[in-house]
Specification:
Radius of gyration: 34 Å
Number of helices: 12
Strand order of the largest sheet: 11-15-14-10-12
Largest sheet: 5 strands, antiparallel
Oligomer: single chain
Structural class: alpha+beta
Shape: elongated
Strand content: 15-25%
């Protein structure tokens, strides 16, 4: 008895190992569908119970139900068929097609039916014994994904089907979905405020990788080999100049990480504007010397005047400030106003004159001693921004130096 049980377990394990090996050979793999296949098969067996009719009779019943367009009844009978003959891919494919044609009662049932059809089609694909069966299952799988708006797996399954068997209707569906939802250019952005500006193009899918050579697919008028960089779904033309206009072409064939390339070339004529007026500090914290020159470096771009406010936080509120969430961070106008009312005192407000160079970072030392005079012990907060109209949003961060 024990020997027969062991033999049965070993046979089952061999069968499972063979099935897993067979499935692993298939190029289209989806973990969620593989998990769903196990659950669906168990559910169908439970619903079917003990099947009394022979397979031929069940097929006739299914044909009759399908002829009457009673897809719910057909689905029940086809469930019994896959229970009796689970390894025949055609049975699972018929089941998936029948489920797809059931008119759902509501959106929730529609989702459930589409998921079940996807899993049944996936089982048909995994158990298919020839290229024709695989192609049929992949087409149906692609259609179920498209109905569920899962565009990438829909495109991948349809593409694999076309690799197995080229047909006009599947090709038409694939090209339509690829044009609308496949690898394509989405938008571009101009990083004009960087010291070295760049133009970046964003795509719908990750690019082929940093080791890929994109120079044949990106042309910049007047440059033999533009400097390029890639990051996930973006490719950038680097090393540009402010105040210049660039004609850039992205050529068809630009590769992606998926098995698609850019379908159409795209031409752009893009102007890189001058940098916006900007102010920043060189570090988070600054400790002034007890004696000697007391200057805090302020870095500015394209502004002749920097508006400066300085607050002092004395001993009484020092611990709470140092332990607070905003210590050594950039503050907003609202934060500064609250600081002045609750914890500190404004000790100076005024302007710092700057000698700007167009689009360059200019560092100017702010003379703390001359501006504030005698500095009492404590933590100081210095906020700086380009002079001009005040921003509408009081919650935007301002360059802040704690010292």
């Amino acid at each position: 008895m024990l020997a027969s049980v062991r033999a049965g377990v070993i046979a089952a394990l061999v069968t499972l190992a063979s099935a897993a090996s067979f499935a692993a050979d298939k190029p289209f793999q989806r973990d969620e569908l593989a998990d769903g296949a196990i659950k669906l098969e168990a559910q169908i067996k439970a619903e079917a119970g003990t099947v009394a009719k022979p397979l031929a009779a069940l097929r006739r019943d299914a044909d009759t139900a399908l002829a009457r367009r009673d897809f719910r009844a057909a689905t029940q009978t086809l469930g019994q068929i896959v229970t009796v003959a689970p390894n025949e891919a055609a049975n699972w494919l018929r089941l998936a097609r029948a489920v797809m044609q059931i008119g759902p009662a509501d959106e929730r049932e529609r989702t459930t039916l589409l998921e079940r059809a996807s899993v049944a089609a996936y089982v048909a694909y995994q158990r298919a014994g020839n290229r024709s069966e695989e192609a049929d299952a992949l087409v149906l799988l692609g259609r179920t994904f498209a109905e569920r708006k899962l565009w990438r797996p829909a495109l991948d399954s349809l593409q694999l089907s076309l690799d197995l068997r080229e047909t006009a209707d599947v090709r038409g569906l694939y090209e339509q979905l690829r044009d609308q939802h496949g690898f394509r250019l989405l938008d571009y952005s101009v990083d004009s405020d960087a010291a070295s500006p760049r133009i970046c193009f964003q795509f719908s899918e990750a690019l082929a990788g940093k080791r890929a050579d994109y120079s044949p697919f990106v042309a910049v008028a007047g440059e033999d080999k533009p400097a390029l960089s890639t990051d996930d779904k973006q490719i950038c033309v680097e090393g540009l100049k402010h105040g210049e206009r660039y004609t850039i072409t992205l050529r068809a064939g630009l590769p992606a990480s998926v098995k698609e390339t850019l379908a159409k070339s795209a031409d752009f004529n893009i102007y890189v504007r001058d940098r916006k007026p900007f102010v920043r500090f060189t570090g988070k914290a600054y400790v002034l010397p007890r004696s000697g020159q007391r200057g805090i470096p302020v870095v500015s771009v394209n502004t002749r005047t920097v508006k400066v406010e300085i607050y002092r936080i004395g001993d009484r509120n020092l611990i709470d400030t140092v332990l607070g969430r905003d210590f050594q961070t950039n503050l907003s106008s609202y934060d500064l106003e609250r600081l002045g009312k609750q914890r500190g005192t404004k000790v100076w407000t005024g302007e710092l004159k700057v000698e700007p160079t167009l689009n360059a970072d200019v560092t100017t030392a702010f003379p703390i001693g001359e501006a504030v005079g005698d500095l009492k012990p404590g933590v100081y907060v210095m906020a700086a921004q380009p002079a001009g109209p005040k921003a509408d949003n009081n919650y935007d961060e301002i360059a802040t130096q704690w010292f």
